[in-house]
Amino acid sequence: MQFDKLSGKVIGCALEVHRALGPGLLESAYQRCLAHELSLAGIPFVLEREIPVVYKGTRIECGYRADMIVDGALLVELKSVDGIVPIHEAQILSYMKLAGIRTGLLLNFNVERLKDGIRRFVL
Known about the structure:
By secondary structure, the protein is α+β, with helices and mostly antiparallel strands. Helices cover 37% and strands 28% of the residues. Strands 1-4-5-6-7 form a five-stranded mixed sheet, sandwiched between helices. The protein has a two-stranded antiparallel sheet with strand order 2-3. Strand 4 (65-70) and strand 5 (74-79) form a beta hairpin. Helix 1 packs across helix 2 (27-40). It is globular, with a radius of gyration of 14 Å.
């Protein structure tokens, strides 16, 4: 699987988190630890960024939040679930469209090997 440079750096940080913690924790634990790794690597990010819906020219806050936006260019959604299902993929694609971000990573930490829990999306 080929990744752009930024995605590769984020995946490297995620691998470090998964190596240290393994599967089985809550999504929020992985989010905070990944944020710590990104900080150590000097990679800018924003946690829990609100994503509005623009409906007929009106910005409507609907409670959507991206888990993480990295360097303003990569939307990262974290999961800790038994398996990625189509609704997870629809969620990240919708968030990417609403946020105007072309590249996304869906990371499921509840796997034995993190490489099995990585999905990349490009609009």
